[in-house]
Amino acid sequence: MERVQLTNDLTFSRFIHGLWRLSDWNQSKEETLKLIEEVLETGITTFDHADIYGSYTCEDLFGEALALKPSLREKMEIVTKCGIVLPSTNRPEHKTHHYNTSKKHIMESAENSLTSLKTDYIDVLLIHRPDPFMDPEQTAEAFNQLHKEGKVRHFGVSNFKSHQFSMLQSYLDFPLITNQIELSPYVLENFQDGTIDHALQNRIPPMAWSPLAGGEIFSSDDEKAARLRSTLEKIRAEKDADGIDQIIYAWLLNHPSRIMPIIGSGKLDRIRTAAAAQDIHLNHDQWFEILQSSMGHDVP
Ligand code: NAP
User: Fold this and answer.
1) What keywords sit in the KW lines (predicted)?
2) C-alpha 262 – ligand 1 centre gap (Å)
3) What is the mean pLDDT of residues 189-203?
4) pLDDT digit string (tens) for 50-81?
5) What is d(CA 213, CA 264) in angstroms, rounded to the nearest whole number?
6) Measured from the CB, is residue 130 less than 6 Å from ligand 1?
7) 20 lines ligand 1 (CB under 6 A)
8) What is the pLDDT of residue 180?
């Protein structure tokens, strides 16, 4: 598995495993441990979390599995996020769905994540969404303190547009190392609005969430999904690939910005199939055929 150099002391596996849906998989902690070990065997060592996943339960489920074999911690990189406040029976004090990127909230959220994940450090902490009420001086203070205390190694953002990324960066003494954004052949917004250009300009590899559009490409009966399925199937046959999911991943991997797709499935066969997509090369014709079938028209 290829590795992506993010800083001089941190690399990610090119594919990342996402734990957003972990609580839906209804696994025992032994089963989650087995999945973590099998994912590591594929060469995928980077795991993506957020405090809010599973209504504040997924980090605990992962941490309980990790506690069965703590030696695995050194073999992986853990990414988690903070900044969204979600009303939940697990957080009865939360009244409204909102964002909070204050120093106090970030510090408390990071401490909760450390406790839940049963780890002493987070490799990368992301601000989950741009916050219209952000005081970047406070966000920077929280980052500095968490870094000084050895609790978080590096920081990044998620769902930030280029101007939001640059604004927060201007308050920090160290670089934000990634922007986790929605990228798939089905959702082109970040390819079209300058977000990917900003990542290229700053040499910051983006993490791609919902690379399969959360399954929509397979299941939706809208015209775009139908067009994409037929183009992807044509190219799958040309490449003799195992499934159209591999062509979707290859479309992302072949982009020069060093996109790191986050696999959302808990099924090992799907994770292995995804990992094998790193060997598929798409030519310009194939890459643009997929782009155009999503757009529904030719490029200008
Ligand atoms: P995804 O890979 O686009 O979607 C996963 C869904 O697609 C699952 O329901 C999966 O079903 C289904 N699927 C996968 N392969 C399939 C196939 N061959 N045929 C039919 N269905 C298939 O990814 P995602 O789960 O939406 O997102 C991935 C990760 O990104 C999350 O775990 C999370 O870590 C991160 N994320 C971040 C944000 C953010 O705002 N930063 C937002 C959303 C997600 P099965 O489970 O049955 O395989």
Assistant:
1) NADP, Oxidoreductase
2) 8
3) 97
4) 999 999 999 999 999 999 999 999 999 999 99
5) 10
6) no
7) yes
8) 98
Ligand 1 atom 11: residue of nearest CA = 265
pLDDT at res. 8: 95
Q: Is 270 in the pocket of ligand 1 (CB under 6 A)?
A: yes
The catalytic residue positions are 53
**How far is it, in rounded angstroms, from Cα 12 to Cα 160?**
20
Q: Domain 3-177 carries which CATH code?
A: 3.20.20.100
Q: Note the pLDDT of residue 70.
A: 97
3-state helix, strand, coil in the chain (%, to 5): 45, 15, 35
Place of tokens 């910005």: 257
Query: Which pLDDT score is estimated for 106?
Result: 98
What is the rounded CA–CA span in Å between residue 64 and residue 253? Answer: 33
Q: Which amino acid is at 87?
A: P
The DSSP bridge partners found for residue 18 are: 48
Ranges of each domain in the chain: 3-177
**Ligand 1, atom 22: closest residue by C-alpha:** 215
Cα separation, 33 vs 195, whole angstroms:
36
Ligand 1 centroid, distance to 67 Cα (angstroms): 25
* Residue having the nearest C-alpha atom to atom 2 of ligand 1: 264
**Does ligand 1 lie within 6 Å of residue 46's CB atom?**
no
pLDDT in tens, 32-46: 999 999 999 999 999
pLDDT in tens, 239-253: 999 999 999 999 999
Measure 252 CA to ligand 1 centroid, in angstroms.
Answer: 15
